[in-house]
Amino acid sequence: MREKGFEVRLTQETPFIQHGAHNEKQKIYDGDVLALKTSDAVVVVLDGVDVDAGVAFEMGYAAAMGKPLVGL
Fold it and tell me: Of these four, 13, 17, 54, 59, which has the most CB atoms within 10 Å of its CB?
């Protein structure tokens, strides 16, 4: 998608929580919410037996904002 000119945010490219400190968790949450708010659409990978908790949150947040949502 990047090669086609789309801006892409992959959670896997975001630093994971290292120390479990509240401010570290807050920074990750704030970045996630900002990405969702500024996105034109949200594409999620649904490749497991159960939906990942983070993906479920992102889907719900995107849906609540009326963002187009695509599940793969």
Answer: 59
Q: Which residues contact residue 10 at a Cβ distance below 8 angstroms, ignoring those fewer than 6 apart?
A: none
pLDDT score of 64 more than 80: yes
**Strand, helix or coil for residue 71:** strand
Percent of the chain predicted with pLDDT > 70:
93
- How many whole angstroms separate alpha carbon 54 and alpha carbon 6? 22
Q: How far apart are CA 23 and CA 26, in angstroms?
A: 5
- Between the two ends of the chain, the Cα-to-Cα distance in Å is 14
